[in-house]
Specification:
Elements (H helix, E strand, L loop, with lengths): L3 E2 L3 H10 L3 H7 L8 E4 L3 E5 L9 E5 L6 H4 L2 H22 L3 E6 L11 E6 L10 H4 L5 E2 L3 H16 L3
Antiparallel strand pairs: 1-7, 2-3, 3-4, 4-6, 5-6
Helix pairs in contact: 4-6
């Protein structure tokens, strides 16, 4: 089990409010924003959350900078994006034998504007008081998973994702 480290939410909020869009920078291949990519195609990129609260916590994003789900995605674009959310959910369920898969669209016009879906596997046996929002809140600390372990997790999810056509 990975150790949790307190997360400085105020410092994070200050940094993302002034930084370039981390998803666009990842898509462009900026090494300062590189993280563990699970899969990508022409329109979508899927990668591990840099600040995970659960092992396998994944982000699913359109590659094009879109900020508003209701106004900036056509129904077909939305359905294609959701097909990736569903597919990675099935992969996470397989890799982590998860009790449940959490899916949320978070972000803010003040920071992290790029539309993205959080897809996180809840392990079996987590007490109810530590589930749902409690399991996802960085305020409760983020897992300290070594980079080589994150790479292995990304490979495992990627293989399970590829098997779920």
């Amino acid at each position: 089990m990975s150790e949790r480290k307190p997360f400085d939410l105020e410092a994070y909020a200050r940094s993302v409010a002034t930084a370039p869009c981390f998803i666009c920078e990842l898509v462009k291949g900026n090494p300062d924003f590189a993280h563990h990519v699970i899969a990508q195609d022409e329109d979508t990129i899927i990668f591990l959350n840099k600040y995970p609260t659960l092992r396998g916590y994944t982000l699913v994003c359109p590659k094009a900078h879109r900020e508003d789900l209701a106004e900036e995605l056509s129904p077909n674009e939305y359905l294609r994006l959701q097909s990736h959310v569903h597919r990675v959910s099935r992969a996470l369920k397989t890799v982590f034998d998860a009790e449940r898969i959490y899916v949320l669209s978070l972000g803010s016009q003040q920071a992290n504007k790029h539309l993205h879906f959080h897809v996180a596997p809840l392990p079996k046996g987590v007490p109810l008081a530590q589930q749902q929002y409690q399991a996802l809140m960085a305020e409760n600390g983020v897992l300290q998973i070594p980079d080589e372990e994150m790479a292995a997790i990304a490979r495992d999810i990627s293989a399970a994702y590829a098997a779920r056509t």
